[in-house]
Amino acid sequence: MTLIEKNGYPDFIYMNAARIFQGIHTEKSKDRMLVQYGNNLESPALAFKDERCKRVSYELAFNALKYQDLLEEILLDSGVYPCQSIPDELTSLLVVMLYDLQSRKFEARKIFDEEEPVAEVQEVGHYLYRYMIKLAAALARCRIKHDALSIEYFIPETIRKQEQWVSALPFCVWINTYKISLQDVIRDLEMRGLTKVESVSDFDHHTYAMDQHCHDVLVFPSSLKEELLNLDLFADRKLLLQ
Question: Which range is the signal sequence, renumbered to this chain (predicted)?
């Protein structure tokens, strides 16, 4: 996947994220349930082309979950929801695509020639783009109402602290010795400018360490995560994120 948040995602990513979100979204009491979610998105099997597509789908779904209350408020305040042309069964897709749209500052996503269009995604996407000005205005009103400099304000404090803590943790990678040897992995990492250190306490940005107990496990600083996950070593499943 060469596309990322700035351009949007292929249609199947949104569908997978919507199905995941359908199964994890917060169910509210009847007196607070202003946005209705259908239930037919949770049954079809998820189709992931590769590990990266899987990770992106889950990230998109869980980001929508973190901001579910805000996204619902935007939909209601803008008057974009409810809409007769968008059935309840597509509300999860509507919320997921709204999160992605606002994260790109309401810029239309790029359509890639090689992607296979999904009718539901096309329908919801066109609907949201038609009302982008109203949605952006509703987000601005929400931020003014809550005196929020950014949408991160709407994440509960406990989750915000938890994310900060998790993002600072080193991460571990298994070497798939059926496909590549430890020596070849080390050679590849060194060619990319990474230096081996004795322990995580010695970490700088472009460094790594051997696990002290498992000789087929490498440990990296958190700042390298996105960079490393884009390598062919992960796409070819020669390295596996623990």
Answer: none
